């Protein structure tokens, strides 16, 4: 008797969750691939879109708006240490390789092209690399390790985040049913960081300008989200990501509302003053989703 092929079992589980009533994290087979940089361009004044492709990108999978990959970089000595395939997972060397996490903004399964929108800021390892990398250069991509699959059956969706969460929010708004209703709150410095969004007609999009305040400070985003009201009896899915301290009040807010675990996801992508934040190892995390870092 041959060994059962589990490589595509996650696709069945994704379909089951989408047909159900509650969101769920679904793991994918995790691969490591060498991709080619095809090009880059600015999206607004704050995001740089990096397009990866080449033969190594073929077979890449993308199923959820907030799924992420790791780009792996050489260490301080110039040595590139890569994880090794281990069945449907990866075996990571210790100490861990130098890497940065990015949301998968777009994936074309026909051409294999992968778009990553990188939030730029001075001194960020990933953003500095993205600004100088040239077409034809190679970069290794690990993942995605999985995605949080959200059924299209909620009455409304509430999406909120800062510039680092904007790529996921933009993909959310593209992939939700055109009949979906809800709100999107995005904190940016000013109008130059705003981008075109393909939101469903019944979605309210609110751009929150923090002005001269440094990114990751102030309570603008949490205040706007907490002011939202919806009709009693409606099921709402809440998705929030951004600076860990800014979104912390919203963890208590969803508990006050009594939202079920599958009806909300609040993720710290980065932390003010921390160069390489990992929420999985931060004492304030309250879920098992993989976290981001300062270059998300």
UniProtKB/TrEMBL annotation:
* N-terminal signal peptide: none
Pfam families per the UniProt record, alphabetical: FAD_binding_9 (PF08021), SIP (PF04954)
The protein's matches in Gene3D superfamilies, at most eight in alphabetical order, are given as: Nucleotide-binding domain of ferredoxin-NADP reductase (FNR) module, Translation factors
FAD-binding FR-type domain sequence ranges: 25-152
Q: Could you tell me which SUPFAM superfamilies the record lists for this protein?
A: Riboflavin synthase domain-like
| UniProt GO molecular function | oxidoreductase activity
Q: List, alphabetically, the PANTHER family matched.
A: FERRIC REDUCTASE, NADPH-DEPENDENT, NADPH-DEPENDENT FERRIC-CHELATE REDUCTASE
The molecule here is called: NADPH-dependent ferric siderophore reductase
What species was this sequence derived from? Crossiella cryophila
